[in-house]
């Protein structure tokens, strides 16, 4: 059985370059005709997950086609907050330090509990240099996709993928317009809900799973802490939590999210809850004199703790399509970017052995489980605590007076914590 099909068109068009771990001339690169071609990876969706995978795979020498239904620059509903790890990944992908006009540099976190207890702290150096940033997705995603093209990926914008079909060793990607596209491997990076997820037979994310979140942009904002990401747990709005993230030019991203099942049970609408959030005393003080620009936009967030189905014969699910979102904070950019790197590494291994079955691609699941799973589980458990106002007051009170506890909370809000120390738990439980 030949591993890589030879597509006459692609042989004449694509350079015959090797994939890392399987140099040209190795048996795995020879199709039945005797001609060799690099494997064709079709990536559906050019958000952070798709572009990250495209950059790294193209750098490895794979033939990459990136299909995106929108045209860049395009907006994506998001809080635009990049964690320290996300910034580190962006540098690894060759975006370099993002210039000041691209995003607002952030060096600290500030959080307010339901009882009004506030703590703030600098992001420690040990977390990827202690830097975060807030970068509008209209800017971030375009820079990433341009980098993918620079690395050698072919970008096809305005292409809506509608399905996937298997034919022996080949996958055919069906688009709304045009001929189906032949692929050796398909990466589903099409967010939530995901067409590729459905086509691979993975269960759809239920509307009662995960969370929903809304955001709005404000201008003429004069934040009290312009280099801080602000997180707010307002008593009247629990179990929702909100944020104010600074943007360049006196703008801010203001938003709010709530667990999907709780939202359904409450009967409230998130845009109305956002109005109440903006009118609440702490937030109103930050937004005094500011005005909203554009519409309030919302979207579903699939939770990482329910991520299970990610690896299939000749196909992987990445980013939101896999459910890689921090259940406590709703952050998903870093997991999307990192899942792109894990997919590229696993594919390099699979190309080298010639085994593109789910088993051969197993390195992908091993990598993301090692990195994400414990953090997702911890954050899922912490959601319980973060919905209880008096407990949250106690935790924030502790953070205020104890530097080590504060450090642990920064890890939690940055998506880095995999456990909480006994010292922290005892201090919260016994009020020490
Ligand atoms: C309100 C809100 C606030 C958030 N705030 C933050 C935050 O501050 N920080 C953070 O880290 N995360 C945040 N997130 C989560 C974050 O936005 C996602 O986790 C992240 O965008 C996932 O990246 P992705 O590449 O997997 O998917 P996406 O960014 O959703 O990209 C998917 C791409 O696929 C394309 N696509 C979809 N279907 C098709 C199709 N059929 N054919 C072709 N193309 C298709 C889409 O157009 C899109 O470009 C927030 C989410 C929401 C909703």
TrEMBL record:
Domain spans labelled FAD-binding: 40-214
SUPFAM superfamilies in alphabetical order: FAD/NAD(P)-binding domain
GO molecular function: FAD binding; oxidoreductase activity, acting on the CH-CH group of donors, NAD or NADP as acceptor
UniProt-listed InterPro entries: FAD-bd, FAD/NAD-bd_sf, Geranylgeranyl_Rdtase_fam, Geranylgeranyl_reductase
Region (Disordered) residue spans: 1-37
Listed NCBIfam families: GG-red-SF
Name of the protein this chain belongs to: Geranylgeranyl reductase
Organism: Melittangium boletus DSM 14713
